[in-house]
Design goal:
single chain, Protein Transport Mog1p, Chain A, 3-stranded antiparallel β-sheet, 10 strands
Amino acid sequence: MKNLTLILMSIVFLSFSLKTGNEEWKTHETKYYKIEYPSTWDLNLSGQMNTKFMIFAPTESASDKFKENVNLISEATKAEQTLDTYIKTSIEQIKKVLSGVKIIEDKRIKNNNDEYHKLVYQVKQGAFNLNILQNIRIVKNKSYVLTFTAEKSKYKSYLPTAEKIMDPFKLK
């Protein structure tokens, strides 16, 4: 059930508006991880919804009701928990709890010494049709779920910046 809590918390009313271009970037670094993000975005370290951080892009207009975002949630896992079993359980729980779930991408990524699972899916959350991209890692009995959430209609326009934030994300 913890997997479900992580997933739901990753998508509930979070948002992130992405802009491309020659923006300056900021770095947020702890002894556990490092992430970079556009300087026009807001970093939230409040721990809201059990996140390690949330990065919000500026709203597009006064009528923009959903804020696209990138966030990180982490929790302890059982010693025998593998990435494969974690993903399987997570997908089962997503389908049981959320409505209109459509899995778009479900694959393992290996880059040098880094391995994670990329999961992309669509859901209906209240009035919002959302696209969710998650990079999921299990390291030393701990899960790290890095999530990008956007309205379905805005997902493709934000994706290049989301990937620029998420792809170089490193655990220490």
